[in-house]
Amino acid sequence: MQLRPYQLEIARAVIDSIQSARGLTFSVEIARQGGKNELSAHIELLLLTMFMARGGTAVKCSPTFKPQTVISMLRLKQRLDDFHFGGIWTTEMGYIIRLGAARQVFLSAEESSSVVGHTADILLEIDESQDVSKDKYTKEFRPMASSTNATTVHYGTTWDDSTLLEEIKQTNLELEKADGIRRHFRFDWQEVARHNPGYRDFVESERARLGEDHPLFRSQYALLPIRSGGGFLSHSQLAILQGTHSRQRQRRDTSIYVAGIDIAGEAEVAEELELTARGRDATVITIAELEPRAEGPLVRVVEHYCWVGRKHPELFAQMVELLRNTWNCSRIVVDATGMGEPVASFLGGALGHRILPFKFTQSSKSALGFNLLAAVNSGRLKLYAQDGSADHRELMFELERARSVCRPNQTINFFVDPAEGHDDYLISLALCVEAASTALPKKAVGR
What is the pTM of this model? Predict the structure, then answer.
């Protein structure tokens, strides 16, 4: 079996625990695309071969059946064929692969899945352990290994300190101190790159695109935990955001402009309120000028518009005038959630394909936050220079007070605590970055 040295080290430890009936629990962190799933398939193949006459069952669970469990099954089938077991192995009930008397069972760890009754007397594997519920594992999967004290392996990448993988990892590190037996294996992207130059090139380009402090780079490649509940942007990131260009009041004919619009809930009675009255939701438009670059456009924020306590029909004509005639925006991403949906629909009717409605869900907002962080970290997003305006003060207020919370399945939420104010400028800025990502035509890049 052609495994890299770090994969071979893990495989030997797992097989030794099985053959010696030690019943150890291992935690394995390998950088994304570093060969974790390939390692798992090779271990499964070897165990099916070892136990094909004697018999026994190994169980592997993944956070979802589709696509994760299905992909794991396909990978094992391919490896069985590679080692000339084609026509010998069989499948049972759509989720079991059998070789002789040995079986490899694939299960979903989704909350709704029914898995009680299965036994893992050879090996229990938990794939993407950071995304598996602690309760699900403790109540339904861990007991599968109890009758024979079977070896257990948790695979994954780090996220925050609340995940199942992190809990197993910390327990293993404490046990290692007591008896010297290695139970935790960690190989970040630099270790993987030692054996794969192409991988090094890819990850270095991701580091340039996302920035070293981006949650996805930190967790998936550097294998460093995320600090949940802290500030969304650090002081250094806020410093990177600061631009030197002046605020603009109208477009330059040769430039490309985009906009992001956060829609406020309507007030029953329109009132003249100061922008600093943070008890009221605001409709905010952020306008940005794009400078095309090979690595992605430079996004210069050049103007803001804000309305507090205004009914949406009163704003339609003004918004269309600004977006079409004043700035001629080529792409406008509009909050189309709740009260924003009819506004986005109206703007779409007036401005056509330029409008891109954005529905806020947990996953879509997480992606929006990740994209905003990538633009900040790479220096592709710049704010207009401090001009003493209420817009600039409110924008900086929200950026400085924005918080982030890590969720399961490697998603985040970002917001300003309602006790401190609103996040209208923050969300409008994120939507503007989203608009910039689709405003310019894609160019093929070759060698």
Answer: 0.77
* Listed residue (284, 242, 261, 420) closest to 347, CA to CA: 261
What is the DSSP pairing of strand 96-99 with strand 90-92? Answer: antiparallel
Radius of gyration of the chain (CA): 26
Q: How many residues make up the chain in this entry?
A: 447
In the chain, % of residues over pLDDT 70: 94
Beta bridge partners of residue 355, listed in sequence order: 332
CB atoms within 10 A of CB 425: 27
Question: What confidence tens digit (pLDDT) does each residue in 353-401 have?
Answer: 999 999 999 999 999 999 999 999 999 999 999 999 999 999 999 999 9
Q: Is the pLDDT of residue 277 over 70?
A: no
Q: What is the 8-class DSSP label of residue 288?
A: E
CB 59 within 8 A of CB 103: no
Are 333 and 358 in contact by the 8 Å Cβ rule? The answer is yes
Q: How is domain 227-439 classified at the CATH fold level?
A: Nucleotidyltransferase; domain 5 (3.30.420)
CATH superfamily membership of 5-204: P-loop containing nucleotide triphosphate hydrolases (3.40.50.300)
pLDDT higher than threshold 60 for residue 444: no
Closest by CA position to 40, among listed 48, 322, 381, 417? 48
Section 233-246 average pLDDT: 93
- CB distance 245 to 302 below 8 Å: yes
Quote the CA–CA distance of 290 and 105 in Å, as a whole number: 52
